[in-house]
Design goal:
This protein has helices at 18-35, 56-65, 84-97, 114-121, 131-142, 170-179, 194-204, 228-246, 260-263, 266-275, 284-298, 312-325; strands at residues 4-8, 39-42, 71-78, 102-107, 163-167, 183-185, 216-224, 279-282, 302-306. It is globular and about 65 Å long. Helix content is 44%, strand content 15%. α3 runs parallel beside α5.
């Protein structure tokens, strides 16, 4: 059995606000912890009306403080937006507060639009081209200090916070392999290079002090309900959100709309089918079949489940139904 984890974007819904979104994220973390899910990760996005986790380390502290055993982390921190020392201090602090429970996934995308990226970074000359060096600098801050070391992360030094490389292309796969780090692929929204990236990672992987063999976690949309029809209705919230994003009009997560997919023009319907093809939507039998096919096709070491469901009770139920089909902690 493959372990299951949770990726939560802390969705701000139509008619709701960030406070409610973060409260529901904590409720989801407590719920999935009780069900046996392994990790609960939040993601850094900026200038997104439908995502409340922009201050990702703060959101992680909120969730970790309200849970006891589940690992909590970032999926991920967009490292080009930050100095590695700042991230090392933030996650070193989290590790000091919650020993053995904090993960740090890092990515090289900005997590936003170009204008907002400039507002975050102020100067754009320090670009994503420094990402490999920044990752190595960040990892070094988490190691034990050495005599004469001029700059240390305090808290952070000696915390050995696990670092993951996130990606949606072969770039991150090659970097994770070269550094001997675990690799998480964003197949839940960018499945194009899925097969090539994980094959490249596994072939080029070099053992390291942190990891002796390749470890792949894949993102997967799972919308589970009592029936296929009910699940497909819930799924229309995510479909609408993607259309809004791809047309330059990001918005709070909308409520489901009956017949939404049938109302789309063919071009938009094809786009959704393409970007969301790593999605399993349906009742228990459909979920079980789809999950078995996904695992057989890609052989992940772990699956990170995400479910942008408008109704909070339905979202909790989706994760519970999945846990009844597939034991989250695996073998």
């Amino acid at each position: 059995m493959i372990p299951l984890s949770v990726l939560d974007l802390s969705p701000i819904k139509e008619g709701g606000d960030a406070g409610r979104a973060l409260h529901e994220s904590l409720e989801l973390a407590q719920h999935t912890e009780a069900l046996g899910y392994r990790r609960f990760w939040l993601a850094e996005h900026h200038n997104m009306p439908g995502i409340a986790s922009a201050a990702t380390a703060v959101a992680i502290a909120h969730v970790a403080g309200g849970t006891k055993t589940i690992r909590v982390g970032a999926g991920g921190i967009m490292l080009p937006n930050h100095a590695p020392l700042i991230i090392a201090e933030q996650f070193g602090t989290l590790a000091a507060l919650h020993p053995g429970r904090i993960d740090l996934g890092v990515g090289r995308a900005p997590g936003t639009d170009p204008r907002t990226a400039q507002a975050l970074r102020r100067r754009m000359d320090n670009s994503v081209d420094t990402f490999p060096q920044d990752v190595q600098e960040l990892i070094a801050y988490f190691q034990d200090g050495v005599p004469g070391q001029a700059v240390r992360a305090i808290p952070g030094a000696g915390s050995h916070v696990p670092v993951w490389v996130l990606g949606s292309s072969h770039y991150g796969a090659q970097l994770a392999a070269a550094l001997g780090l675990p690799y998480a692929f964003a197949s839940h929204f960018a499945p194009n290079d899925l097969e090539f990236a994980i094959q490249l990672y596994r072939q080029q992987f070099k053992p390291s002090p942190w990891l002796q063999k390749p470890y792949v976690m894949l993102g997967l949309n799972v919308f589970a309900a009592d029936t296929d029809d009910e699940a497909r209705l819930l799924f229309t919230s995510l479909q609408q959100a993607f259309i809004n994003l791809r047309t330059g009009q990001p918005a709070p997560l909308p409520p489901p709309v009956p017949g939404y997919e049938e109302s789309l023009d063919p071009r938009r319907a094809d786009m959704l089918a393409h970007v969301l093809r790593c999605a399993i939507v349906g009742g228990p039998a459909t979920i079980a079949s789809g999950l078995n096919t996904f695992i057989a096709s890609h052989r992940p070491d772990e699956i990170m489940v995400t479910a942008q469901i408008f109704d909070h009770a339905a979202r909790l139920k989706s994760y519970k139904l999945l846990s009844e089909i597939h034991a989250p902690q695996g073998a």
